[in-house]
Amino acid sequence: MTKTIYDPIAVLLHWGMAVLIIALLAVGMYMEELPKEDPSKFMIYGLHKAFGVIALILVAVRIIWRGLNPPPTPLETQARWERVLAHVIHMLLYIAMVMMPISGYVMSAAGGHPIS
Q: How far is Cα 108 from Cα 2, in angstroms, rounded to an integer?
């Protein structure tokens, strides 16, 4: 029997990651606009780093979950190029979800502010 929908855990991971990533992007843009002398800036940076680590852990869980629970079968009405394009974009999104927290860690460590 072929699956036609994503399982509830995959859906929860998908939307949880979406909300987390959008929030991290918004907070990151906000942080950049704060003046250096703002006392809340370092607290916000700390929270941003902590949630970035959580995002990296969740993407690892999501990749493992996807490996153990394959996604639904593509629709037969989709053309082959649509399936290929969807797969390529999906993989690029996974790469971005892994690389963004890693690049944040590298930038923070290079600036002398490692995650504690």
A: 45
- Sign, CA dihedral 9-12-16-19, equals positive
The rounded percent of the chain whose pLDDT value lies above 70 is 97
Q: Is the pLDDT of residue 108 over 90?
A: no
- Encode 7-40: b = buried (16+ Cβ within 10 Å), e = exposed: eeebeebeeebeebbeebeebeeebeeeeeeeee
CA gap 65, 9 in Å, rounded = 8
What are 27's two structure tokens? 């907070």
Q: Which of 116, 92, 115 is nearest to 104 (CA)?
A: 115
Predicted confidence band at 1 (pLDDT cuts at 50, 70, 90)? Answer: low
| Structure confidence at residue 24 (pLDDT) | 95
Both structure tokens of 74: 């593509």
